[in-house]
């Protein structure tokens, strides 16, 4: 399997996601999150937030649109039919709240080969409208040979 490392360091244009109250509620219901901070505006406001609070893993929702261009970039060279998701790690900053505008930039961090397999690592950096880094994600994938 021929692997090109030419795309290492490539940075993609930021993608902005407008965080909606109902999207937070839908996500929270889908993952079984019952904390009232994620569902009830009054509860969230009484706790000191301006609106409902996104669960931490909501980051997959606002990061997803930034990942797509890299995953299908011919320069990166992923054979999507052979792709396996191998892991993800996150570091969170300030909480994401309904009404936030989160902008995510994606970087190709590593491309390597071991035997017949290709290994691809991407890093996403997400900032809110105030310039605070709300999440840094590391997304790892394997492409079978």
**Tally of extended strands?**
5
Distance between the termini: 6 Å
Strand order of the largest sheet: 1-3-4-5-2
Main sheet specs: 5 strands, antiparallel
Tally of separate helices:
3
Helix content: 10-25%
Strand content: 25-35%
What form results from the Cα inertia axes?
Answer: elongated
* Coarse structural class: alpha+beta
Contiguous uncertain segments of 5+ residues: none
* Overall pLDDT: 96
What does this structure look like?
This protein has helices at 21-30, 41-46, 59-71; strands at 15-18, 83-92, 101-114, 117-127, 133-143. With 145 residues, the protein is an alpha+beta fold. Strands 1-3-4-5-2 form a five-stranded antiparallel beta sheet. The longest helix has 13 residues, at 59-71. The model has no long low-confidence stretch (mean pLDDT 96).
Provide the descriptors you would attach to this structure in a database record:
145 residues; 5-stranded antiparallel β-sheet; 5 strands
Helices and strands, with pairings:
Elements: E1 15-18, H1 21-30, H2 41-46, H3 59-71, E2 83-92, E3 101-114, E4 117-127, E5 133-143
Antiparallel strand pairs: 1-3, 2-5, 3-4, 4-5
Report a brief summary of the structure:
This protein is of the alpha+beta class and 145 residues long.
């Amino acid at each position: 399997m021929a692997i090109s490392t030419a795309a290492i360091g490539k940075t993609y244009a930021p993608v902005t996601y407008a965080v909606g109250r109902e999207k937070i509620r839908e996500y929270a219901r889908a993952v079984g999150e019952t904390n009232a901070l994620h569902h009830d505006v009054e509860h969230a406001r009484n706790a000191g937030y301006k609106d409902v609070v996104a669960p931490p893993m909501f980051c997959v929702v606002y990061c997803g649109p930034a990942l797509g261009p890299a995953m299908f970039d011919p320069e990166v060279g992923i054979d999507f039919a052979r792709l396996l998701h191998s892991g993800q790690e996150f570091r969170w900053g300030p909480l994401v709240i309904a009404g936030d505008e989160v902008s995510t930039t994606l970087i190709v961090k590593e491309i390597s080969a071991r035997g017949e397999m290709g290994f691809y690592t991407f890093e996403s950096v997400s900032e809110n409208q105030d310039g605070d880094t709300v999440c840094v994600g590391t997304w790892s994938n394997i492409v079978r040979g």
